[in-house]
Amino acid sequence: MKEIKQHIVFLTPGFAKSEVDSTTIPALQVFLKSMRNALPEAKLTLLAFQFPFTRKKYNWHGIEIIPLDGRNKKFQKLLIWRKARRTLQKLHKKEKIDTIHSFWIGECSRVGQKFAKKHKVNHVVTVMGQDASIKNSYAKNLMNSNVKMVTLSENHQAKLTKTYNLNSTIIPWHLDVSEFPPLTESTIDILGVGSLNTIKNYVDFIDVISAVAKTHKNLKVTIIGDGSMRSELETKIKNLQLENTISLLGELPRTEVLKKMAQAKILLHTSMYESFGFVFLEALYSGMQLVSHNVGLAKASENWHVGTDKIDLIEACKILLLEKNRQKKRVILSTETETINAYLSLYHA
């Protein structure tokens, strides 16, 4: 008798364009590699609606990637959805789909839910970011359905409940600890990692550094990331005469980011909203002290200083910089086994 393999199809707006691309949604990449290892006999397929900008299928660590090449063009939306539905039909006919796993409450969850309802297929939706807090029409077909909703943290779950009154299971992301370099002596006092946009709130980051620099001379601060606010932030740094204090490195490969983390003492994160904060996991495992607002999976601890305003963040940074004898140690908040087993239970429910 022929063995029946499980077939899981993942739907996401964007994905890594190759195995070399380490910067496109790192949390999703780590998760899918682990899922591939956990289900060696299963067929895993991924449809990328908008990015990468190609129509050529490719293999990514044993997962078939089917790019739909939407290129984030609004006039192509309906065409891409139709293409996604047809692709799902072909896949289902060739090798029956058991589970569809959609990321974000958006076009992927809409297409996934319609297909799942029509073909009585298991459907899991992972809420990824502001889709938990900003209402959109894509959530309508998830209401009163059998879809299994997943959020990433307690804060994230609370936002989803408040916005849509949708129940969800909390499943945090995990790290691939093999990616991390050894811990080293701190040559960077304060590090910022994230896109240079309004959500990450680097305007406040620079204000905090300006205040801290007044009492901590020769402060070494590095920001990794790029985005629409770069020129504005460069001007602010110049106006506050912080050019010799803050270095803007732009976007770096993930391996380089982790090297910088291993060399840094404090991760300052001034974002006012996070669904999870993958960078928090990375920083804690890199032996860093965290200073942030109560966002994502934030929880005050020996290694995590959670502030309610800018003044709290300034004071936390000042206190930590005065500590000379604190030894770096790796901290793990969630494990690969916990994350993968939690999802497998939803796939098989």
UniProtKB/TrEMBL annotation:
GO terms for molecular function: glycosyltransferase activity. Residues 185-298 form the Glycosyl transferase family domain. Keywords: Transferase. This is Glycosyl transferase.
